[in-house]
Amino acid sequence: MAPVSKADKKAAVDAAAWMFNVVTSVGIIIVNKALMATYGYSFATTLTGLHFATTTLMTIVLRCLGYIQPSHLPFTELMRFILFANFSIVGMNVSLMWNSVGFYQIAKLSMIPVSCLLEMVFDKIRYSRDTKLSIGLVLVGVGVCTVTDVSVNSKGFLAAFVAVWSTSLQQYYVHYLQRKYSLSSFNLLGHTAPAQAATLLVVGPFLDYWLTEKRVDMYDYNLVSVLFITLSCTIAIGTNLSQFICIGRFTAVSFQVLGHMKTILVLIMGFFFFGREGLNLHVVIGMVIAVLGMIWYGNASSKPGGKERRSYSLPTTRQQKLGAASDSDDNEDKA
């Protein structure tokens, strides 16, 4: 039996990480839809805070078992990440409330070009013509699938603008922090999840009351709804972890492009669970276009020159320390 190459191993791990993200993301969407639509639990921000609280408990258990090693993340970097992440969550919820579904979907699609811009400015990434065209094809396909009526107002546009930029910055920052400080996905979650849980559980009830005019403490909690909340929080552990794993391996742009596969899967699962109403000819055509674009993107971005850095890579803190040590050795030799 021929030995497995490093490239094959990497491809297998990449595929496993992506499938993990797809399964958990689609799963949590289905569970949350049932929780909110069927059982009336419309407190999205508070629920997200509970997700991060559960994830925090997971990181504490793993740290006690020795699976998460001690690591360092500067407080200023942590606060910057929490700012982007929380504005992303709040911005998305407010954008959905103030905008039509069509404009909300267009705003989500615009995250790909924004993520591309961030990589071009901060990482000096250069994209080939085929890579750009493939991204455009994905946007067209998903747009055909999801965009229906489009209406916008000034406050809705502002909410969408904040949501798009904060989400793109948050996803870029995941990749940035993992590289710069040599953090694994578990390590980064161990730093960020407690802070996000604390802030969202404080702000969430007030924001949810403003959005829904309902109080989370007045909700009629029963056995079934609590079970769905618990299931949602459990799946969220995998969703949060897999997001960090995927962005760390694929970059924010690739995560966004491939992420639209989840949109297509949600549409297909909606067809199986909720009937044929959401699936018609133009939706099927959009799905086919989007999938072709994703295949083209994967092929184009993996080719030489498809997506490459124009300058040296970002040094990690470990590399910086090694560099400082070698400089001191050189100075000792000269002395």
UniProtKB/TrEMBL annotation:
Which cellular component terms (GO) are annotated to the entry? Golgi apparatus; plasma membrane
The highest taxon in the source lineage is Eukaryota
List every stretch annotated Disordered: 302-335
The answer to whether the entry has keyword NADP is no
Q: Which GO terms describe its molecular function?
A: antiporter activity; D-glucose transmembrane transporter activity
Sequence intervals crossing the membrane: 12-31, 43-66, 78-96, 133-150, 156-174, 186-207, 219-241, 253-275, 281-300
Q: Name one GO biological process term.
A: D-glucose transmembrane transport
Primary localization: membrane
Compartment(s) where it occurs, according to its Swiss-Prot or TrEMBL record: Membrane
Which keywords appear in this protein's UniProt record, sorted alphabetically?
Membrane, Transmembrane, Transmembrane helix, Transport
Keyword Cytoplasm in the entry? The reply is no
InterPro entries tied to this protein:
Sugar_P_trans_dom, TPT_transporter
Q: How does the record say this protein sits in the membrane?
A: Multi-pass membrane protein
- According to the entry, every stretch annotated as the Sugar phosphate transporter domain falls at 23-297
Return the protein name: Sugar phosphate transporter domain-containing protein
Q: Which species is this record about?
A: Eutrema salsugineum
